[in-house]
Design a protein that fits this description.
Length: 407
């Protein structure tokens, strides 16, 4: 019941957090046009990349720390994680200032704020404070669109910078509120904790660095195609392509929400051996069926419904929408396997698999781009995602076999 209750709350939270930006989607496409929206998608690549390097997989590191070492030093690890984000962010800010790039300065501030608020959300998730988690998500979801519209209407046509500025302001306010409430319940005593702070720095670095390659690989697979399209095709092409991806986002939101609810349960039950790896392998095969069903059901949807949402300039968006439905759906079986590997601290294996998948993705992406056919570009993501699954399954199977020998 706890899993079902938390799943419902997390899904509700994710829907709330994403429904407002999704409702803002038609406003952005109409306000910015197809080309302007394509340029916004181009800069999203850099925001995502900066967020990864500044974040260093801290949310995942905090989660594992909580389950393996308990909550006694939770306030210390939160302070250390915040310090990591701010220090790494300062390097990026200095770099942006040196090159006098206002857009990258604002994007860096946004990346810092995303990671800071992400740390607070991660804490609530693994303490199973689902309701508080949803409240923070709701605040972010409600305020970012309102701030975006206010800035757009009041300060002119520099839409890209204003969009990221709105995100930064809202995230930093929510982080500030969440941090105050957290430290009211978790008093921090620095005195005599110097050794613990150094060990925590080392732990987060050692845990996060191998995962950085894994996360960068995932990012490049999700964003590099837009970088290539921006430089080889028109902004209008990129706008149509990105709109198709954006329409498929709700599926990945639902999958991620269920995973967020399930992850604490998975870690707990793997630790207590209530559920075996064999059980999760069955879930893996069920999730593959889910991908096929999602494609068939959404394939019936008439394109005129999508055009009603986006505007008549987005004719042809359904093709990209369905391609990204398959790519997003493959996230479900992927997460089932990765969760098991992360529990057993196989971060290097996960990174290796992600890197190999990235290499395959780049090969297909460059091959398809040379054919100058934008319709083939989504298949680079689909093929590389499918390649990952048997590879991860093999390593999960090896863990299961080795544990049988031990037992």
């Amino acid at each position: 019941m706890t899993f079902l209750k938390n799943s419902f709350i997390y899904i509700l939270g994710e829907i709330i957090s994403k429904i407002a930006p999704f409702l803002l989607f038609p406003y952005l496409t109409r306000k910015m046009g197809v080309a302007g929206f394509g340029e916004l998608s181009y800069y999203q690549f850099f925001l995502s990349m900066l967020s990864l390097f500044i974040g260093l997989a801290l949310d995942s590191g905090i989660a594992r720390y909580y389950y393996f070492y308990g909550k006694n030093a939770l306030s210390v690890i939160v302070v250390v994680a915040n310090t990591y984000v701010i220090l790494l962010g300062l390097f990026a800010l200095i770099f942006s200032w040196y090159f006098k790039s206002s857009i990258f300065f604002i994007i860096t501030l946004t990346a810092i704020s995303l990671n800071l608020v992400g740390i607070q959300l991660s804490i609530r998730q693994f303490q199973k404070q689902a309701l508080i988690y949803v409240v923070y998500q709701f605040l972010i979801a409600a305020l970012i669109p309102l701030s975006t519209i206010a800035l757009f209407e009041c300060f002119g046509e520099n839409y890209i910078e204003l969009r990221y500025l709105a995100m930064f302001l809202v995230n930093i306010i929510v982080w500030f509120i969440a941090s105050i409430l957290f430290f009211k319940k978790n008093t921090l005593h620095i005195k005599g904790k110097f050794k613990a702070i150094i060990l925590t720095f080392t732990y987060l670095f050692n845990y996060g660095m191998p995962l950085l390659l894994h996360q960068v690989s995932g990012l490049l697979k999700g964003q590099a195609d837009r970088f290539v399209i921006y430089n080889q095709f028109t902004k209008t092409d990129l706008g149509l392509y990105s709109a198709g991806w954006q329409l498929a986002v709700p599926l990945s939101i639902a999958i991620t929400a269920v995973n967020k609810a399930a992850l604490p349960i998975i870690f707990e039950n793997l630790k207590t051996k209530k559920y075996t790896i064999e059980f999760f392998k069955k879930i893996f095969f069920c999730s593959l069926i889910f991908v096929v069903v999602s494609f068939i059901v959404l394939g019936i949807l008439p394109e005129k419904i999508l055009l009603w949402m986006l505007g008549q300039d987005f004719v042809g968006v359904k093709y990209y929408f369905l391609c990204f439905i398959v790519a997003s759906g493959l996230l479900a079986p992927y997460l089932v396997l990765v969760n098991i590997l992360l529990f057993y601290n196989k971060t290097k294996l996960v990174s290796l698999c992600s890197f190999l998948s990235l290499v395959l993705y780049i090969v297909f992406l460059l091959a398809f781009s040379r054919l100058s056919n934008i319709d083939l570009m989504p298949f680079a993501t689909i093929i590389s995602n499918m390649f990952l699954l048997p590879l991860l399954y093999y390593f999960v199977n090896k863990i299961e076999c080795s544990r049988r020998v031990i037992n």
